[in-house]
Amino acid sequence: MAIINKSNGEELIIMHRELAFQKEEKEQLANELVIALKELAFLKEEKGKRAAELGIANIELAYQDDEKGKRAIELSIANIELAFQGDEKGKRAAELSIANKELLFQNEEKEKRAAELIIANKELAFQNEEKEKRAAELISANKELLAFTYISSHDLQEPLRKIQTFVTIILENEKENLSEKGKYNFQRIQMAAGRMQLLIDDLLAFSRISTTELTFEKIDLKVIVDEVKAELKDTILEKHATIDSSEIGSAKIIAFQFRQLLYNLISNALKFSNPEIPSHISI
Amino acid sequence: MKKNQLNILLADDDKDDRFFFSMALEGFSIPTLLDTVVDGEKLMTYLSENLLRLPDVIFLDLNMPRKNGFECLLEIKLNPKLNQLPVIIFSTSYEQEVVNLLYKNGAKYFIRKPSEYLQFKKIVQQTITLISLGNKQVPNRDSFVLTVHKS
Fold first, then answer.
1. Confidence band (pLDDT; 50, 70, 90) for A119?
2. Which of B51, B48, B24 shows the shortest CA–CA distance to B117?
3. Which of A90, A136, A185, A207 could, after both became Cys, cross-link A149 (CB 3.0–4.6 A)?
4. Interface confidence (ipTM) of the complex
5. DSSP B91
6. pLDDT score recorded for residue A105
């Protein structure tokens, strides 16, 4: 633009400056563009990375979804099972409740029976006590009876002996004054009295056996044999009997019972011996 | 009391037994004088009052009122003034334990009163004869119980 003189020059300078500035600006912009481009490339890259990551995450998610589905199925099965078990439980509970009621009833019955049993037991105990009392009374009554038997038979001996003595005095001293019939009658009295004496002796022996305390003592049997021999002295002399008891020791015995036994044995042996032959008894 | 006669003391509460005893002495070859007491207490009194002229022999019944024969025997045997007296037990019943006890307590003889009069008489006379022979020693157990000798 030539028309522009001075001012034109100035305008040119300015224009140049403007142009330089614009160029600078342009370069700057270009630089910025480069940077922006670089930035973009970076961003793009980043985006790619993120997309890849997302892909992986998605796969993971899909897998998790799948698993979830499986779990849901399992859960549903478990739920069905549980529901079934719940049902069974309910049934059992109902049965249990019935059983419990039954048990309660049985318990009550049991308690009733126990109460009845206690009463019955008390009754029994009472009856037992009564029985024992009766037994004790019976024992003491028996003892009394035996004591009575002993005392009465013991006391009967004396009047009986006197009857016998008086009868023999009459038979001895009044022989001439008695008729045959009278003598016969007195002999009958004598025989009856003799029989009575035997009965009393037996009663005495019996009550002695029953009333005497049964205690075993270690006793020299020779002592017992000697006592029996002394008691049977007359019969032994009469039968010319010898009693050999040299080889007996001592024994645990009830003395009076053993004496009675030996007395019975020896007196029977003497009674039933042959009168022609002197008896010999070995013990 | 004559010197040559035997003085007998009978202690028996039974009137009939005393009668039998005195009868048994009738016509006996040995002269005797019989005194009687009717229970144990009277026996002990008699003895204590006659310490200077004691009997030659005592016939003692067991069952007597007030003091029985056992007690009398013990008292006599425990009394130094009386324990030399021969005491003959004269009893209705025979029980071994009783006889053993009497022997232990120092009785001279034991006689069971026979029920036949002749036997009664014989045993009384036999026993008095034994005493009159002056047998002072304690009899052994075998001859403690006297019975009638068959003759």
1. very high
2. B24
3. A207
4. 0.84
5. E
6. 95
- CA atoms lying within 13 Å on the CB side of residue A100: 6
Cβ-nearest to A154 among B17, B93, B113: B93
- Phi, psi (5° rounding) for residue A215? -120, 130
- DSSP output for A1-30: -TT--HHHHHHHHHHHHHHHHHHHHHHHHH
- Residue B57's alpha-carbon distances to A54, B32, B105, B134, in angstroms, are 155, 11, 16, 11
* CA A9, A11, A13, A15 torsion-angle sign: negative
In the structure encoding, which two tokens stand for residue A224, read together? 């017992």
Q: In this predicted structure, what is the pLDDT of residue A47?
A: 94
Whether residue B76 contacts residue B105, with contact meaning beta carbons closer than 8 Å, is answered with no
Interface test with A, best of B16, B96, B124, B146 (most A CBs within 10 A): B96
Neighbouring residues of A237: CB distance < 8 A, sequence distance ≥ 6: B150
Mutate to test the interface with B, among A153, A155, A156, A165 (most CBs of B within 10 A): A165
Encode pLDDT of B93-127 as tens digits. Answer: 888 888 889 988 888 899 989 988 998 999 999 88
CB contact under 8 A, A157 and B23: no
- Per-position DSSP letters for A34-86, written without gaps between them: HHHHHHHHHHHHHHHHHHHHHHHHHHHHHHHHHHHHHHHHHHHHHHHHHHHHH
**Number of CB pairs < 8 Å for A and B?**
58
Write the DSSP symbol of residue B35.
Answer: E
Q: Which band of pLDDT confidence, cut at 50, 70 and 90, is reported for residue A234?
A: confident
Using a cut of 0.80, tell me whether the model's pTM lies above it: no
CB B96 to CB A160 under 8 A? Answer: no
- With b for 16 or more beta-carbon neighbours within 10 A and e for fewer, the A96-108 pattern comes to eeeeeeeeeeeee
Cα separation, B112 vs B93, whole angstroms: 6
Interface of A with B in 111-170 (CB under 8 A): 154, 157-158, 160-162, 164-166, 168-169
Residue B138 has pLDDT above 70, yes or no: no
Q: Are B103 and B144 in contact (CB under 8 A)?
A: yes
Tokens in use for A31?
Answer: 């630089």
**Closest C-alpha to B5, from B128, B111, B138, B122:** B128
List chain A residues with CB under 8 Å of B117.
165-166, 168-169, 172
